[in-house]
Amino acid sequence: MRTFITKKAIIVLLFVFSLAALGYAQEKEADKEADQGRSAQDVANELANPNTSLGFMLFALDYIKFDGDLPDANDQDAWRLNFQPSIPYPLGKGVNFFLRPLFPIILDQPVFEVEEDDFESKGVDLGNIGFDVAIGKSFPSGLQLIGGLAGVLPTATDSDLNTKQLLLGPLGIVGWEFKWGFLGSLVSHQWNVTGWDDSATSITDGQYFYTINLKDAWQIQAQPTWAYNHEADSDDKLTFPIGIGVAKTTIIGKTPWKFRLQYWNYIESPDAFGPEHQIRFEVAPVVPLPWKRRCCGAATPVHGVRRNV
To answer: What is the pLDDT of residue 198?
Structure first.
């Protein structure tokens, strides 16, 4: 049963995070030399590139509808707010170092209680913090390669939501820029490294992403995430969605903002309990980086698209 308090918490958290992001962006934009001569279309094209040199603060609100064989699984849904800052550090022309933490705030999450044979709602709680550390390289052909490490920290404030393990493993991203947009895929694999739960964990996960550029900084764009749990039962291993979405980049004051709405339909999900549908709304202000006087750098044409290097 969804309560008024939970709904109110969603509104309050979104408002607070949006204000914080806006305040940070506007403060940094006081540098009058930043962002001159840049269009919303330039920013939209650059943000589609996983090896972008732009810094941004991503806020993503997820609504997830579940399905499964467990009692009342079809009646369960969840709300989650993710905050992910992306802070690239340029190492050379077309080469960037990335450190991207992901802070999940669980607003409402169903957890199945075996003793009671029923679901219990959890939230508002901090979830398990994810992160990736990687180096990316852009090539004149439009190819983008990124490699590094990805992990999950057992930071959830509710024990039922906590992995109780530190997960770590390799990460790789391959992308390709075209005149009309962008295509790419991310794959990582993580094992349990340490923690107070010694059960075996072996998960391959990732996302595929695509962008089709339209006029006036509009884009058809989606980034569905999938996972394969090697330790689960055969009917519960794969979680895979088909996604579609629309994005708009605009400049408010001096700050570029990206807004995106996505819908994911899970064509494969664990039989016992897993997601069926997901709606994601994202807000991402672009922020200047402390080691760059200009947010976007010099732009050079690649395949007819202005890319910042």
So the answer is: 87
